[in-house]
Amino acid sequence: MKLLRGFLWLLGFQLLGHAVVELLSLPVSHAMAGLLLLLGWLLAKRRLNESVATASQALIPLLAMLIMPGVVGVFFVIDEFAGHWTAIMVALGVGTFLSVLTTLWLMRRFMPREAANADERERQP
Amino acid sequence: MSELHASLIDTPILAVALTLAAYLGGIHLFERMGRPSWCPAVLIGAVLTAASLWLLRYDYADYQRNVTWLTLLLGPATVALAVPLYQQRQHIFALWKPILCCLPLAAALAALYAVLIAWLLGAPPDVLASLAPKSVTAPLAMGIIEQIGGSLSLMLGGLLITGVLTTIFVSLLARLLKIDDKRLLGFALGVNGHAIGIVRAFELGPTAGAFASLGMSLTGIFTALFLPLVWRLFGL
């Protein structure tokens, strides 16, 4: 019953997200708004409802399976995007290389050194 | 015989059963191949699904319509992502300063580089829209696609390729730049490579895994909030 109760909570927050998005005509998806509302509610309550935890543990591992039918579509749009595949592949390849490089550089610049790093600790007063 | 075929094609049960079978088969093959990081289990499952659709003379549009009975769960499963994020709040509170400096810029650039390169190479707006959420975790990226347009399938394909390339480039650049801080590597894997990056990060250890999940969630939320807004501003 815990699972069902938690599932109902998740559906409730998705519906709430739906209502908020439609009422304020926000440019986010209903589920995304539901995620943020649930997160806000958890942060405000400072306690994780056991049934919500159970339902999320059951659903999150299914995400990969749930997106698979969409991935299947790639094989059916190969012709539709004929002529753009070079641009797509270069954009993905070079774009990902540059963004990984930038992230690593930014993090190294701003992240405080790890306390556990012994040789660093000696150098720092 | 052809009547039976038609009625089987028409029932959502076949589409759901096919999807579950292909997914489980994909996981099985993935394990048998020794969990290769260049070929995620979802991709194998998708190939198996496509092959069965072709064998059964099952139209992709019909399949898509019938499998909605299953993929409806994507909504509540996305809402459920709030729970791990809530559980990571200590990390966020402890490191809010570096996160605030890096994350928005890193997430924005992850989208911008790809869109800019594709635009320079003359890709049309629907391709650009499909590439923009390439570093966002799939359920949130699907919400973004609803907002900015683009092809769902192309976006998901790009997502998979981005995830795989991220694991390769992070290992390569970590060696070249001599970075061995697990928090950094995990964060870079999560920000750029979403769920596929997280899997790789957990191979590096639990700290890298936690930072990868954090990076993925924050990138997803940041991009889902701002990308549709920016898209609207530029009138794309």
Question: Could you explain how this protein is built, in words?
Answer:
The complex is a heterodimer of chains A (125) and B (236). Helices cover 73% and strands 0% of the residues of chain A. Chain A is mainly alpha-helical. Chain A has 2 domains: 1-72, no CATH class; 77-125, no CATH class. Mean pLDDT of chain A is 88; it is low at 116-125. With 236 residues, chain B is an all-alpha fold. Chains A and B meet through α1, α2, α3, α4 and α5 of A and α2, α3, α4, α5 and α6 of B.
Range of strand content of chain A: under 5%
Radius of gyration of chain A: 22 Å
Largest interface: A-B, 74 and 100 residues
Number of helices of chain B: 13
Query: What is the helix/strand order of chain B?
Result: HHHHHHHHHHHHH
Tally the structural domains of chain B.
2
What is the CA-atom radius of gyration of chain B, in angstroms? Answer: 19 Å
Q: Give the % helix of chain B.
A: over 70%
Strand content of chain B: under 5%
Per DSSP E runs of 2 or more residues, the count of β-strands of chain A stands at: 0
Unreliable segments of chain B (pLDDT under 50, ≥5 consecutive)? Answer: none
| Backbone shape of chain B | globular
Q: Give the proportion of residues in helices of chain A.
A: over 70%
Contiguous runs where pLDDT drops below 50 for at least 5 residues of chain A: 116-125
Which helices and strands appear, and what pairs or packs with what?
The complex is a heterodimer of chains A (125) and B (236).
Chain A: H1 2-24, H2 30-45, H3 50-59, H4 63-72, H5 85-110, H6 118-123
Helix pairs in contact in A: 1-2, 1-3
Chain B: H1 2-10, H2 12-32, H3 41-55, H4 60-71, H5 74-79, H6 82-87, H7 89-94, H8 96-120, H9 125-131, H10 138-148, H11 152-176, H12 182-204, H13 206-233
